[in-house]
Amino acid sequence: MAKLRFQALQELFRREPIKSEKKAQTTSEYYGNNVFDRTKMKKYLNIDAYEVFTRSTEKNEPIDRTLADQIAAGMKTWATEMGATHYTHWFHPLTDSTAEKHDAFIEFSEFGGVVENFSGERLAQQEPDASSFPSGGLRNTFEARGYTAWDTSSPAFIINRTLCIPTIFVSYTGEALDYKTPLLKALSAMDKAAVDVCQYFDKNVRKVTSNTGWEQEYFLIDESLFCARPDMMLTGRTLMGHASSKDQQMDDHYFGAIPERVKAFMYDFEQEAYKLGIPIKTRHNEVAPNQFECAPIFEETNLANDHNQLVMELMRRTARKHHFRVLFHEKPFAGINGSGKHCNWSLSTDTGTNLFKPGRNPKTNLQFLTFLINTVKAVHKNSDLLRASVMSAGNTHRMGANEAPPSIISAFLGRHLTHMLNEIVEKVPDNKEMDPELKTDLKLNIGKIPEILLDNTDRNRTSPFAFTGNRFEFRAVGSAANIAAPMIVLNTAIAQQLKDFKTEVDELIFSGTKKDEAIFQVLKKYIIESEPVRFEGNGYSKEWETEAQKRGLTNIKSVPLGLDAYHKKEAKELFRNLGIYNNKELEGRLEVEYEKFTKIIQIESRVLGDLSINHIVPTGVNYMNLLIKNVQGLKDIFDDVEYKSLAKGRIEQIRNVSTHISDIKELVNEMIEARKIANRISETREKAIAYDEQVRPFMEKIRVHIDKLELIVDNEIWPLPKYRELLFAR
Ligand code: ADP
Ligand code: MG
Question: From the alpha carbon of 297, which atom of ligand 1 is closest?
Fold first, then answer.
């Protein structure tokens, strides 16, 4: 029975690193080769088409039919020269991966045979049979029509001889069925609101861009061991497994030397990423054994998100080539660190200013403070939504579990900025003019921010939303997630906040207050109002939970209850006012999230039940029989007194194993009953709550017994690869 496990180990020890072919070229020579970027456009489009395209993407204007035809023809020529035979619209449905449906370029020729063809119409729009993508009831299957439309802001690329065109995905009635549509809307709302506020400081600003630099954590597991663990194959994580005696206690993995086989894998997927114009910059070992991280140079948020999804796909494919499986699950192993996807986020202007970077003079620094304080205020006001945006069945193992951002949303600014904010509160007078001396003094201090920050950006790794010198880092995002979800909420929240700020400042100016004083006054008010969300201490501590409660901050750990934030009146208003989601879209999305959660717990619970009954219980029984035989043997050989003393321990062990077996069986039966009751609930939210509260707890209880058995039962007959093998054999 344990054959598979030992075969897997044998196979693993025979493995050699797969040699990747070293490119003769330097990275810069082939970087972006597989992308239809501006350079290739120049080459493959006539100059008029190129210019009209550039202008319309900058101004977000629609592209007319003739132009689309010309671009499609140019794209096709380039793609076929590169060996592509097919094209596809590539989109982000509401699952955590991307979707594509390929069509060949061929069409019948009027002269017989076929020709390669690609029209503007096909470039601009496609109609995938979309009935199987989650829509939360927005699209009934009998009218399963949805269509994809070209996102001109993200360039087309070639993967595996297929030309991929990044697209949005919407229903025929116009509701968004994907992540990209609302993300683009949120980014555009933020742009508009931020440009308006920038006008206080710099009249030349015409565009504000949101930037994201994601850090992707993941585990690599040898393919044979992975395939010997049905729980990993079906759920992406281990549902059982006793802790390895050594795991991450020695802190010897973090930033350690990257194992040879892993390096070969990294090298391979990075090359593929470079060809796709994805600027992967950093790679290193993470805290847990067999855990790693990669991060690119930050990019515009929509592009960064496309690139993150692409990289995850590249990694999955490349891992298989190297006989690894890559795990993006947030918590593949109990008891050691899980994986996140930190999202570094900033805003920058078309005049070259990073709005989260203190500038060279008091004026740009006041602009910096304006954006900083408005962000903190937005985080305070929308903390429930921000939490909801990163909640999932996988991430719930991390959030609030003492290793990753807590489920209380707070913001960290560091000692010096905190001091600066306190100074503003102290010195700016309420509703009366600032005396000139004070104003100079304040501005002078503000002017000193860059110098102070230069050497003093303290880090706080327990804060879910931390300022890190020139950007914020949203650290609560799950490793498997599509980062659009948090980026939609964050950019929408900041858009509304900046609009509110402008309204308040303009009102003061209208009633006669000078501009910079009006700004100071509103900032002061915001600093005071948002103070509860600012926290500099240890976010993992028990004291913080108590303190946060006193401050009126919420601490929600349940996924379905956390998702309720999207249901609230204020949330609906926020998204509706800025044109991000109408009520129907928001409801649809929530339905999808509840269903996703329910299905994941349902699958996990089924897998655990099956494995318990057909892997673990029989193994326990086998081991018990061995012990029973041994005891019977003792009885045959020894006299009664000696037998009793010798067999005592073994009989105790038989009892022990037997108890665990009975408990497992009983708990599995109870779990099945709980599932049956939950399955009868038709309302999706109630069903998700039932799965969370009635089914999920059994999984912990059952695994306790299994993990105990793993320690007792003869290693030779234990069927599943153990943690020490999964994490250390490589
Ligand atoms: P860490 O110390 O957090 O590991 P890294 O140097 O690995 O920092 O950077 C993390 C990510 O932050 C990278 O993707 C990087 O490009 C990104 N980043 C740096 N500056 C900015 C910025 N201004 N806006 C957004 N992301 C940024
Ligand atoms: Mg970081």
Answer: 16
